[in-house]
Amino acid sequence: MPALEGAGDESPSPAEKTLFKKYEVGRLLGYGAFAKVYHAREVQTAQNVAIKAISKQRILKGGLTANVKREISIMRRLRHPNIVRLREVLANTKKIYFVLEFAKGGELFSKVAKSRFSEHLSRRYFQQLISVVGYCHSRGVYHRDLKPENLLLDENWNLKVTDFGLSALTDQIRHDGLLHTLCGTPAYVAPEILAKKGYDGAKVDIWSCGIILFVLNAGYLPFNDPNLMIMYRKIYTGEFRVPKWTSPDLKRLLSRLLDTNPQTRITVDEIINDSWFKIGYKEVEFHHDYLELKDDGDNLKVMNAFDILTFSSGYNLSGLFDDREE
Fold first, then answer.
1. pTM, whole model, 2 decimals?
2. CATH number for the domain that contains residue 224
3. Range of the domain at 67
4. Known catalytic residues?
């Protein structure tokens, strides 16, 4: 049986621990409705990686084929030191495997849950986050699900943004220039999404960045309630209070990030020029390179599909979702 085929096991069986004779698969790092993420080691180099195993059957049933294709396309075009790197994509008849850079430091969320960050440390991670967001937006990519759980840390405690499964490309924008898909996690959702109208993907990401900055500094959410409708009302009206230890400059920036009016909400360029943000800020350098996609059937067929992909909606990875046995 191919590696990582078990539906409910927390770790692969001894017979399943080598994926495509290339990666030794270890412990389960996390899981969701459609995928599991494992720690693994590349056999040839002994380098640590994370492998995201996605069930083809589940994404077909869930109608999420486009999301997986989108995530591959998006992660291929993004090369930034604070974004988890997609090294390669492998596939067999049952699963798709994303081979990802391993973020040794784990989830940022787990650190914040233990104790809120100092304003200095909050600023450091917020600067890295805004660097990523600005970079993505300049390339027509909007994350739409930014939250501490999707923010990881490397061995040097630098930020690594992951999980682009809900991301939207500019070719999804309708003629009115707005996005129309309901995405995101409730406590981080911008008020214009709750209004179920078209929204600007860049403005939505800025709102989520504001929520994240608030959580880093405060240790709790600005808009929260056990009753979902009450929480939505708080978000829609912008009802929140900053902790007493928050500096005036940070309080002012938070009010601009969590502006319920997307038209007047602060932009990435304005954030970068903000006096609180600018303290110790250094712009990062980034580069592009290319990925290879491999499809492993019984004959270990290899196809360099990424070589012919373009950055439009015209690419075709439908072969990855073919249920027929080879």
1. 0.76
2. 1.10.510.10
3. 14-102+289-319
4. 145
